[in-house]
UniProtKB/TrEMBL annotation:
Alphabetic keyword roster: Isomerase
Catalytic-site annotation from UniProt: 102 (proton acceptor)
Gene name tied to this protein: rpiA
Source organism phylogeny: Bacteria, Pseudomonadati, Pseudomonadota, Alphaproteobacteria, Caulobacterales
Protein name, entry field: Ribose-5-phosphate isomerase A
Enzyme's top EC category: isomerase
Provenance organism: Caulobacter flavus
Job description of the protein: Catalyzes the reversible conversion of ribose-5-phosphate to ribulose 5-phosphate.
């Protein structure tokens, strides 16, 4: 089964968790898009809280009513993809530069379900470079402070994310530095260290946030718990 078919299967399985009346956090990325499509097909009376402009526009196209995070007290269920799923459902997210809105939505949610293809499930986080969202003002200085932190963790300096049209800018108007590592020995310590840097808005380590994972495999969708 292709990775895309696995993503589709996990997105469709997650859509079955949604019940009428729910406020649902809508994740970002290619896997979350399958969830949004499957959810729209169910035509339930729900409201969605999008985690990016891209997801908001997909949801609008498919007729899912949207509500802003500030206009709800809490979210019943959020379903979102991940770049890596590690031990205890620790995650790396932000490959699509949506980590900040995603984390805000996740933290406002009663239940968070991560969906992914089988290749995303890893023994140790870090093969996927860790995205770090940084305010644009003075970002090269912040980038140098991040390089100092990376050195403390024996990691190479993070690199400013670029695209064909130049520097990648997030929905929040910030930039992304990607910290390549190969393996993050102590994700909690790294997460804590990154948050001490002025200019860092947030990072893509989602620790103790996922309640379950639905991973598409060749043998079907497998449910993982922390
Ligand atoms: O910023 C993007 C998000 O964290 C995505 O959920 C993550 O990158 C996974 O995306 P995909 O499902 O496309 O692999």
């Amino acid at each position: 089964m292709s990775a895309d078919a696995q993503k589709k299967a996990s997105g469709e399985a997650a859509a079955l968790l949604v019940e009428p009346g729910m406020v649902v956090g809508l994740g970002t990325g290619s896997t979350a898009a399958w969830f949004v499509k499957a959810l729209a097909a169910r035509k339930l009376d729900i409201r969605g809280v999008p985690t990016s402009e891209a997801t908001a526009s997909l949801a609008r196209e498919l007729g899912i009513p949207l509500v802003a995070l500030d206009d709800v007290m809490s979210i019943d269920l959020t379903v979102d993809g991940a770049d890596e799923i590690g031990p205890g459902l620790s995650l790396i997210k932000g490959g699509g530069a949506a980590l900040l809105r995603e984390k805000l939505v996740w933290e406002a949610s009663r239940r968070c379900v991560v969906i992914a293809d089988a290749a995303k499930h890893v023994k140790v986080l870090g093969k996927f470079p860790l995205p770090i969202e940084v305010v644009r003002f003075g970002h090269s200085h912040t980038g140098r402070r991040l390089a100092d932190i990376a050195a403390e963790f024996d990691l190479p300096p993070p690199r400013l994310r670029m695209a064909d049209r130049g520097v990648v800018v997030t929905d929040g108007g910030n930039v992304i530095y990607d910290m390549a590592s190969g393996a993050i020995a102590d994700p909690a310590a790294l997460a804590q260290a990154l948050k001490t840097v002025t200019g860092v808005v947030d990072h893509g380590l989602f620790l103790d946030l996922a309640d379950e994972a639905l991973v598409g495999t060749d043998e079907g969708v497998v449910k993982l718990l922390p």
